[in-house]
Inverse folding.
């Protein structure tokens, strides 16, 4: 049976300011992938990274990896979309390949350490995406990405 895949993504809410509509809640569908928002400068990206790290700093009472689904706003804030634990409570669930720590690096660790390291690796991959504007090893297949991670190979700009 294939491992369930948890969300691990950041999208940007593109807001067109019209008639003072600032602060209006837009539907999640108005968010676009980060790569489709090239106007974000390094200051804005740094704010997003700092805001995301606050979510990682929150304790994880579940005992299994949490889904990461973020919406970055043009003011530098980041919303962590709430996911119902029952929707993603498969303790064997993992992140997509670009955000997944190679399983062999977790051998011999207790469950709490496995969860912590899996979440930390996923968050680091999201931070790379925010600051570089591209997904890690964007042009590689999932298998190639995991192979590179297993060999300890990372992009030169990481």
């Amino acid at each position: 049976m294939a491992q369930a895949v948890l969300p691990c993504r950041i999208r940007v809410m593109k807001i067109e300011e019209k008639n003072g509509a600032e602060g209006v809640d837009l539907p999640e569908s108005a968010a676009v992938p980060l790569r489709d928002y090239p106007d974000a400068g390094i200051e804005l990206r740094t704010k997003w990274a700092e805001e995301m790290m606050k979510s990682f700093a929150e304790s994880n009472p579940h005992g299994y990896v949490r889904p990461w689904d973020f919406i970055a706003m043009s003011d530098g804030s980041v919303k962590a979309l709430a996911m119902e634990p029952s929707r993603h409570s498969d303790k064997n669930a993992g992140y997509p390949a670009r955000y997944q720590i190679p399983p062999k690096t977790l051998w011999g660790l207790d469950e709490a350490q496995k969860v912590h390291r899996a979440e930390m690796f996923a968050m680091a991959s999201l931070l790379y995406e925010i600051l570089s504007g591209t997904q890690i090893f964007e042009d590689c297949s999932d298998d190639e990405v995991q192979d590179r991670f297993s060999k300890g190979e990372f992009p030169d700009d990481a």
In short: Residues 111-132 form the longest helix (22 residues).
